[in-house]
Amino acid sequence: LAQKGTITYLPRISTINLSYICSDDEYTEQYNAYIAKLDEILSGVDYRWSDEEKALYIHDYLVVNFDYDYPAYYEAVKRDNREKYSSYGMLKNGMAVCEGYSELYAKLMNKLGVHTELVTSDELSHAWNVITIDGSRYFVDVAWDDGYCGYKGIVRHSNFLRTSPEIEVENHEAKD
Question: What predicted TM-score, i.e. pTM, was given to this entire model?
């Protein structure tokens, strides 16, 4: 049988059961709040800025206004994976782990027209971004630039707009 928020396929009887994690009304409410928060963050961007300036603004905004979700990471609080690893969780709780930072950064940059992708490594158990500016690809790791647990406002740029060799020096070297 399908559990809440799952899809179950029963090949013996050729049946697919879908179970949703919330009602249509709850989804619409959450979606609208999510989009409003994205728009709020983007309201501080001057669209005349260069792509590099936009990338820096969004990077610094996320570091200053959000925290790494150490309580969930160390299981001091229980959050479902939807909140712990996503941009939704970042906006809802003000924190998430690296995948939440990276997903939110990519969503915001892509809304600004700057091609940004999520990069993951199972070997490192980590996620960060690759961004294209003026035809060149750079790496950005917002989560690792927000390395001061509980201290909002301290911004590092060790992992901002780095080439492959530069990001590897910052412990992003993995075979996968």
Answer: 0.85
